[in-house]
Amino acid sequence: MGGLGAPELIIIGLVLVLLFGAKKLPDTARALGQSLRLFKKETTKLHEEDDARAAQANAQPIVVQPQPIQPAAPSVEDRLRLLEEENAKLRTTSQARAGEATVGGSSAAQTPKDQGSV
Known about the structure:
The chain is an all-alpha fold. Helix content is about 75%, strand content about 0%. It is built from 5 helices and no strands. It is rod-shaped. The termini are far apart.
């Protein structure tokens, strides 16, 4: 009751010939066959790739490399100490420059216009 017998298959074949014509059926069947071969080839290729990946994953255990310890960032106290040292250096250089300017006495305080009139 649920199967297709010979008479049903003959009727389906005749309907296909009437719908598509006798000339197009061989080309259609050939294209369908090529599509099925290509589909089968690609699915077997995917299965082989999956099997290869699984075999590779089983063969090579995952080794986690320990990461080197990064030096810790300087603490707030260390950065503050470095800033104070830099500030002290800048003060000494600015004081030395100010001392050099006053060593010349009044000639250092004079403008170039005043120096020309002397």
